[in-house]
Amino acid sequence: MSIAVLGSGAFGTALAITLASAHDNVTLWARDENAANEMARIRENKRRLSGAKFPPSLNVSSSLAESCEAETLLIAIPTQLMDAFLRQNAALFQHKTLVACCKGVNIESGLGPTGTINKLVPTATAAILTGPSFAVDIAGGLPTALTLAGPEDRLADLQEQLSTPTLRLYRTTDVIGAELGGALKNVIAIASGAAIGAGFGESARAAVMTRGYAEMLRLANALGAKPATLSGLSGFGDLTLTCTSEKSRNYRYGLALGAGAGFDETTTVEGAKTAKAVSILAQKHQIDMPITNAITEVLNENLTVSEAVKALLSRPLKEE
Ligand SMILES: NC(=O)c1ccc[n+]([C@@H]2O[C@H](COP(=O)([O-])OP(=O)(O)OC[C@H]3O[C@@H](n4cnc5c(N)ncnc54)[C@H](O)[C@@H]3O)[C@@H](O)[C@H]2O)c1
Ligand SMILES: O=P(O)(O)OC[C@H](O)CO
């Protein structure tokens, strides 16, 4: 079985490293020819995942057509860029198994990664790989468990193909639940970071995480997800990791927001655009998502973090 990882950011590179350590015929595709040549030569992605050496068997290519000859294609580019990427290259993806490896909701379409694949490449089989993991941990061979969600008829084979001795995949057919868990937790991670960055303390962060989880569940239920999926790796598991670790870019972005500090705008922070996309979805489905909406208001510069907290605390008292 051949695998290509499309996108040589931190996550794509980490997945390619672990997959190539366990399987033959793994290719990492980078869109930039110079970057691909350098990675092939020095056996490392210095820019995105410095220090993680490539296994000798990992191929690196800047030819998308060649890379797409693989049977299974993992797409590891940020969510907001997937739409254009799939449109531009749709001819190469027909009848392929496309595994989305990103976490978010598209701000224009309101679709998650698999929804985007299904819309733009309907002949493909769409799956998603998501859950608690930092690229540096996966690439370093540290034990990691993720959720693989996809259609029943392909799922067990895919699970076998994409598992490695250190990367343990759990399967589910609840694609909506898996992708919503990964998308929504990033918004709550920004809120958690903001709580800590503004000096509100760890008890406040626990409140944000718990009430954030409650609103994640409300939206997921309304959109047809299974509650059990949200309590698994792709929901609760990833929420816990992302809201408590400074390795998370979403959490660090929140820290900077809370502290009124600057943040490198070129960093991938999926939760920022996803917050806005989710607020629109919540309004459409009439779901109460106060923390997500507060983050959207802060990002739109309609509220400061302190004003957002005041507004959250002054809501009418309610049952848990
Ligand atoms: N980094 C992690 O620890 C981690 C872990 C789990 C999941 N993820 C998810 O993986 C996804 C990607 O994140 P990342 O950490 O790899 O981001 P990154 O910022 O490290 O890299 C993004 C990559 O996408 C590439 N890219 C952008 N536009 C492209 C296009 N049009 N065509 C081809 N390539 C393009 C960039 O060149 C870059 O290499 C995100 O959804 C993120 O949530 C990341
Ligand atoms: O760095 P972040 O915030 O994108 O988080 C990375 C992963 O999603 C954690 O599971």
UniProtKB/TrEMBL annotation:
Residues 2-153 form the Glycerol-3-phosphate dehydrogenase NAD-dependent N-terminal domain. NADPH binds at residues 11, 31, 103, 135, 249, 270. The keyword S-adenosyl-L-methionine does not apply. Residues 174-310 form the Glycerol-3-phosphate dehydrogenase NAD-dependent C-terminal domain. Pathway: Membrane lipid metabolism; glycerophospholipid metabolism. GO terms for cellular component: cytosol. Its main location: cytoplasm. It is an enzyme of class 1 (oxidoreductase). It comes from the Bacteria. Keywords: Cytoplasm, Lipid biosynthesis, Lipid metabolism, NAD, NADP, Nucleotide-binding, Oxidoreductase, Phospholipid biosynthesis, Phospholipid metabolism. Substrate binds at residues 103, 249-250. Belongs to the NAD-dependent glycerol-3-phosphate dehydrogenase family. Catalyzes the reduction of the glycolytic intermediate dihydroxyacetone phosphate (DHAP) to sn-glycerol 3-phosphate (G3P), the key precursor for phospholipid synthesis. PANTHER family: GLYCEROL-3-PHOSPHATE DEHYDROGENASE, GLYCEROL-3-PHOSPHATE DEHYDROGENASE [NAD(+)] 2, CHLOROPLASTIC. This is Glycerol-3-phosphate dehydrogenase [NAD(P)+]. It comes from Halocynthiibacter halioticoli.
